[in-house]
Design brief:
Elements (H helix, E strand, L loop, with lengths): L5 E6 L9 H13 L3 E5 L2 H13 L3 E8 L1 H10 L5 E6 L5 H5 L6 H10 L1 E12 L2 E5 L2 E4 L1 H18 L14 H10 L5 E7 L3 E7 L1 E5 L21 E6 L4 H12 L10 E6 L1 E5 L5 E4 L2 E5 L2 E14 L6
Parallel strand pairs: 1-2, 1-3, 3-4, 4-16
Antiparallel strand pairs: 5-6, 5-16, 7-10, 7-14, 8-9, 8-13, 10-11, 11-12, 13-16, 14-15
Helix pairs in contact: 1-5, 6-7
Amino acid sequence: MLPTQKIIISVNPKAGRRSPMLQAEELKSRLKEKRFAVELLTDLDEVTEKAKILHAEGQLRAVVGVGGDGTAATLVNRTEPGTPVTLLAAGTANLLAKHFRLGKTPKRLAEILETGKILTLDAGNVHCAGTQRLFLVMVSCGFDASVVNGVHAHREERYRQGHKHGAHISYFSYAKPICQTLYQYRFPKMTVEMLQPEHKIIDNQTRWAFLFNINRYGWGLPLAPFAKGNDGKLDYVLFRGGSVVHGLCYTALAQCFSLHQWLPTAKLGQATHYKITSEQPVPFQLDGDPGGMLPIDVEIVPNRFTLLVPQTKNH
């Protein structure tokens, strides 16, 4: 058992397919049975302040995000480096939770919090229009980012209108935005430039651009087969095909033993610092959340976040 005993549960009320509050309450109850001191909070400012104090005092076991990948990234962005974080998966894709087998139920996560180990991982940092934000899994530019923008715009509108369950999303929530993007998106070209460890243009005809910290995408599609979360690098995956048909082809081949990497229209590799630009408006997304529009500057931040994971996982 880890030496510290206090746990903060941070709930994103809009995460996933339904309200995660019931799961959070069950987790709190199970942790109290294990004699942890637990607080359940929905205000991120309060989470941030209490986590900072407890971490500085050496009393924090972990901050538990109840939500998806965006929830995890938000917690890492708002807490001090070294603050232990883990997840009760309540989002849509839950890529981080699936990759590290963080458990699907409050019962399982309570066991992990009791017996788990600390893992130090890299993060990516995106600079855009004078702001910066960390991401944990990946950043992508183009078609899928346009879909993400549509999904989140619809969710926020439903939330503002007061729909009881309308702010929660599932894979079905992507159907309409995908159809709209299929009709509207024109696959503009992007230039992907490596800034470190050397300065060169990787590709100036890219239509789909991905930078991965961890090899997880969508339902678990292995687009970046060599990406590791602690190697001090971000893996790029670039495609030149400018249509949805190309996208379906890339997806099918990636699902089949990552055969997409051998295509002449694909480029895969690694670096530590990138710049992505376009002469036309192109959106980007980070860990499933809208990011803004190109250009962006992206760099690796080694050992930036601390994740509490199961002892049995071979990382």
